[in-house]
Amino acid sequence: MEACTEEYSAIRFKQRAVIEFLTAKGVPPIEIHRRMQAVYGDDCIDVFLIMSTNPMTYEAQFFGFTPQTFMLRIYFAFQDHLSHIMLVVEKVILNKLQNICPSLTPTLIRRSTEKFFAFMKERFDNQFTKMEKSLLSTVLSIPKNICLPEDKFQEEFCYTAKQFQELENEISQLERELKAEMCAEQALQTELEEQRIVQGHLEGILQWFDGLDNIGRNEGTGNLKESFAALTKTAAKLHNIVQEVEDKMNRLRK
């Protein structure tokens, strides 16, 4: 099992080396995959992995799609369309010529159709390779000296590694200060909430004093001090009355 794994890894390593070499030579991904598939068969690397060698990310940023994937979809679309046409042609031949020429059996027609399909596919592969290389190098690629509009500010504000590091440090410092400000704001919010609670209690006490003042005015006193004095006298009278009542009750019991 380990020997098979090592052999598989060695094949993958060789294929990646071939991919990097052909990519450097400017060979399109689909053509690379076609050449390698002819050599490695089912062990060939997937075409999308071949595309990842040169992902053309800057072009994808501009067009909104990956140019290599675009070409691959065109290639697959033509193959599907060609296969569909071959099936239609085969069906027409069976319907039209079966009664005229009995020697044309479905097996013979299918064999001829497959040969014609292979012939057309080979011709298309050759032409598509040229078209793909031309489109990827001229139409669907951005020259290295061209900067996209959204990246213009990078040319205007070009920073060295040291300046970029200083900018990063400044941003980190600002983030720490912002965090401290947010903590201070949270503490102030908590203190403000406590002050609101205390204010509510004080307002309740003031309302209580206002109620006492109103009661005093109703009783004929001028201010809160006089109200307390009158309240004290009334309380003393009540205490004396209660004391007298208790004395009388004690005498009656005796």
UniProtKB/TrEMBL annotation:
Coiled-coil zones: 164-191
InterPro entries noted in UniProt: Centromere_Mis12
Key word Coiled coil present: yes
Record's keyword terms, sorted: Cell cycle, Cell division, Centromere, Chromosome, Coiled coil, Kinetochore, Mitosis
Pfam family, one: Mis12
Chief site of localization: nucleus
A single GO BP: kinetochore assembly
Keyword Phosphoprotein: no
Subcellular location(s) of the protein: Chromosome, Centromere, Kinetochore
One term under GO cellular component: nucleus
Superkingdom as given in the UniProt entry: Eukaryota
Family, as annotated: Belongs to the mis12 family.
Name of the molecule in the record: Protein MIS12 homolog
Species name: Laticauda laticaudata
